[in-house]
Write a sequence for this structure.
């Protein structure tokens, strides 16, 4: 009986886990809009300082500072530092630092990472998220573990 309850509890927790696949992601091919308090741009770089923000479709990266590398007129790498947020209509991911690589559709957030989707919350030290496939992998930080709170969907209320 105890094993059955434990298995049922684990099953409910997994069903209630944030469905990363439900989230909107950066949409390739759409324009990338940017803004900040201070902006520097060269043919090969973009530097945003103070309330820096990059937006593409319904997704955006906000941070204290964003540095971008430009190749052939396109952003090829984006590094955000200080109070970093990656926000989609379905979820918010917060970290201390993020590196987004459009070539492989991957954003890696590190340092006190917090992923929220609705009432569900997951924390860890490093999150690797593919914006195309919407697959995610959370790892613990140095000496810490991945932790989460998953709230089952309420039915009939």
């Amino acid at each position: 009986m105890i094993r059955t309850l434990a298995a049922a509890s684990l099953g409910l927790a997994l069903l209630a886990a944030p469905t990363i696949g439900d989230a909107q992601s950066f949409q390739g091919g759409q324009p990338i809009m940017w803004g900040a308090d201070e902006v520097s741009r060269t043919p090969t770089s973009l530097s945003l300082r103070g309330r820096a923000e990059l937006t593409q479709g319904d997704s955006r990266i906000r941070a204290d500072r964003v540095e971008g590398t430009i190749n052939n007129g396109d952003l090829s790498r984006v590094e955000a530092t200080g109070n970093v947020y990656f926000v989609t209509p379905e979820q918010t991911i917060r970290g201390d630092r993020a590196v987004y690589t459009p070539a492989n559709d991957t954003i890696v957030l590190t340092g006190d990472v917090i992923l929220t989707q609705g009432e569900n919350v997951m924390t860890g030290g490093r999150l690797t998220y593919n914006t195309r496939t919407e697959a995610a992998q959370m790892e613990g930080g140095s000496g810490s573990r991945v932790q989460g709170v998953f709230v089952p969907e309420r039915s009939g209320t």
About this structure: Confidence is low (pLDDT under 50) at residues 1-25. The longest strand covers residues 74-87. The helical segments are 2-16.
